[in-house]
Amino acid sequence: MARTLAWGAIGFVCLCGAGARAGAEPGQDLQRLDWDQPVLCVEDPAGKRWRVQCAQAPEGLTPRCLLAPDATGDGGPLQRVQYCESQGREGWERLHAQGATLAPALAEAPPGWHRDLQGRVFQVTFDLLQRFQLGAQWSPAFGFDPQRLSLGRARFEMALVASWLEASERSRHTLRALEGQVAILDLTSRGLLFAYDLDRSADEPFLRLTTFFGPPARHDLYLDLGWGLRLLGVGYRPHRAEALDLEVVELHASWDLWQSADLWSHVRLETGLGAAALFELGPAGRERWALVPGVALEGRFGLDPAGHHLLESRLAWQMPVWLQEPALGATHTRATASAAYELIVLALNDQPLSLRVEAAGSWRDDLGPGVSRWDLTAGVGLRFSFWAPARVLEPLPPARAD
């Protein structure tokens, strides 16, 4: 009976300690159980279940254990916890017999998630390369002709993005599908059915430089090559011309001038060749087919480990070579530049809502007379992302050859 009362008192003290800490400042959080370590579940004499994780103690010393309630503050079940081996009342008595030191704690949470002082869990990091996104923006369009100024445009967008790292292959695969953008009040649209990109990190240096200014030193240059393709890209009313752009297929090779340790961020140079058509709409409409060589410089940067900041930029140049008379063999020029910054501002049911700001410009001389060669747009709006998993840093193993 005395033992039962003593352990009941200990449980009460632990519970009161946790309750006191629940009202503490956010910077004074309790310790949390380790997600990667085994967890035991025990039951105190009052019938309350606890999650226990003990650190190994040197021989002759009493173990120190973290003790976390196996329920939320309102008595509900914990979400996103590891399996715990239930030892019931016997486990509680065993801790007493070992003389274990019990420290109040909070239950474990998976990487990228946080558990608050009430035991509730919520996602705090996000991988913006894995999501289905919907967005809306105010997207004014500008031109050097005042009549082309369009401040009332709204634009809606959607896209599916999936990316995964294969550490053993030192590569990252990125898929984009069902991309679409529609601007209203000055109707334009753009879409892409499917795109794939492979980024690789080379094992061996492409070029080894040895310098003799001062002590001899070796400098390795790596050629991190990849490739990609795009299928069925469509643009309606480019530069607000009565025309339809169709990109049937495009293949490109890529060289990462710089890449992060997990290949998530990069500065990439691309060169490729595509097959495309331009359909001029209206009574005198015609179609023109072309081979389109091009080059592009692209940057993608995750600015923080939590994945809350994304910076993207792209500079591209294309030269369509027409395949039909009367312009057989003739060439034109297309150039585009864009930059965008995205910031997650909050999450709804663990689905991130972000603010996105962007600007873009393009120049082309293949749309006929009366069409401005310049097209300048901006955008500011919100983007809602579904099913974005936690951002987990997965640096590649240091396998590059000496």
General description of the model:
The protein has 402 residues and is mainly beta. It is built from 2 helices and 24 strands. The N terminus is likely disordered. A hairpin with a 3-residue loop joins strand 12 and strand 13. The strands form 4 sheets. The chain has a 12-stranded antiparallel barrel. A 6-stranded mixed beta sheet has the order 1-6-4-3-2-5. It has 2 domains: 122 residues, no CATH class; 256 residues, Porin (Beta Barrel). The longest helix is centred in the first third of the chain and has 21 residues.
Secondary-structure element string = HEEEEEHEEEEEEEEEEEEEEEEEEE
CATH structural architecture of the largest domain: Beta Barrel
Quaternary status = single chain
User: Could you tell me the strand content as a percent range?
Assistant: over 45%
CATH topology type of the largest domain: Porin
Structural class: mainly beta
Number of helices: 2
Number of domains: 2
| Unreliable spans | 1-28
Question: What is the overall pLDDT average?
Answer: 87
CATH class of the largest domain: Mainly Beta
The helicity comes to under 10%
Q: Order of strands across the biggest sheet?
A: 9-11-12-13-16-17-18-19-20-22-23-24
Summarize the main sheet. Answer: 12 strands, antiparallel, barrel
Compute the separation of the termini in Å: 69 Å
Instruction: Determine Rg (CA atoms, Å).
Output: 29 Å
DSSP summary, beta strand count:
24
Instruction: Characterize the overall form.
Output: elongated
